[in-house]
Write a structure and sequence with these properties.
single chain; 329 residues; alpha+beta; Fumarylacetoacetate hydrolase, domain 2; twelve-stranded mixed sheet; five-stranded mixed sheet; 11 helices; 27% helix; globular; Fumarylacetoacetase-like_C; catalytic activity; Fumarylacetoacetase_C_sf
Length: 329
């Protein structure tokens, strides 16, 4: 299933996305029609907490009432929210080798430009990429970001006033299910509720300063609306092989880069194993893959401008679309 959170008639609803991603089936309304209103359909977190029984009931309701026109709404007529508007936790990784190898040089180039150091910029341009630091092969690396600053597709991301360098990041990630600790990689798939797209908007100049302090990122990532998820969550049975998905970035309709989700240093299952060492994983957490190679302006030397529209597309999931705007004052 593809599952969305949307606002219909001023109410937040959980819906099944159908008819080629053009229609939203209101699960809670269908449950009421069946004479058995289920609180598991009141929110995405409630649905995740409801476990397999709730998902099975949602499938059965769609099978029974999916042709009832009054239970579905066109996607174009609804406000699509982040599929998980308030994750219980948000972790974001560093999983793709090319991104890891290119990003430090991108940060140094950004610093050289800011200082007007043309000689240093030329040196960096000519320098070959470094080898992957061994630490990234030893264990999954991730940070925890602000779970309260999540927005969805078709929203405008307000450029933080303290930043002059705004960037996008093409990622995908998993939403977890089932509480557990010390989960083995072999069992971790049982804790994946579904997959979604993540645009990890970044204030690169703020992030550069933080990373020089060897702690963070903080304000380089955490600003209102800067964590964008969507457009929906796709359950594992419909995603295919999550490590073979084609990915693409478009800015103002023009392709900026392409990638594929293979080559992750650690799979999501291995990341879950690492995260849950003597730590309890909660249902409804989000774990990001990290940026795919060439999936951000930092790597390409091509950052965002006021009014840019960014589309991130991931095969078998959909398109996550946002606009960035500077703020006055």
């Amino acid at each position: 299933m593809k599952l969305a959170t949307c606002r219909l008639n001023d109410k937040e609803r959980v819906a099944i996305v159908h008819h080629g991603d053009t229609s939203l089936f209101d699960i809670a309304a269908a449950s009421s029609r069946a004479g058995n209103a289920n609180p598991a359909f009141n929110s995405m977190i409630a649905l995740i907490d409801g476990g397999e029984a709730a998902l099975d009931q949602a499938r059965a309701l769609f099978e029974r009432y999916g042709r009832d026109a009054d239970l579905s709404t066109a996607v174009s007529n609804a406000e699509i929210l982040a599929p998980l508007p308030e994750p219980r936790q948000m972790r974001d990784g560093m999983s793709f080798p090319l991104h890891i190898r290119q990003s430090p040089r991108g940060q140094l180039k950004l610093k050289a430009r800011a200082e007007g150091n043309k000689a240093e910029l030329a040196r960096l341009e000519a320098e070959p990429l470094p080898e992957l630091p061994e630490i990234y092969r030893k264990q999954p690396i991730y940070y925890i970001t602000n779970r309260f600053s999540v927005k969805g597709t078709n929203t405008t991301v307000k450029w933080p006033r303290y930043s002059n360098v705004m960037d996008y990041e093409l990622e995908f990630g998993v939403v977890t299910k089932g509480k557990g600790a010390n989960i083995s990689a072999a069992k971790a798939r049982d804790h994946i509720f579904g997959y979604t797209i993540f645009n990890d908007f970044s204030a690169r100049d703020a992030q550069r300063v933080e990373m020089e302090g060897r702690l963070g990122p903080a304000k380089g990532k955490s600003f209102d609306g800067g964590n964008v998820l969507g457009p929906w969550i796709v359950t594992p049975d419909e995603i295919g092989d999550p490590y073979k998905l084609n990915m693409e970035v478009r800015v103002n309709g023009e392709v900026r880069s392409k990638g594929v989700s293979d080559g992750m240093l650690f799979s999501f299952e291995e990341i879950i194993q690492h995260v849950t060492q003597d730590e309890t994983l909660m249902p409804g957490e989000f774990i990001g893959s990290g940026t795919v190679g060439n999936g951000c302006g930092l790597e390409l030397g091509w950052f965002l401008e006021h009014g840019d529209e960014i589309e991130l597309e991931v095969q078998n999931i959909g398109v996550l679309k946002n606009r960035v705007e500077r703020q006055d004052g």
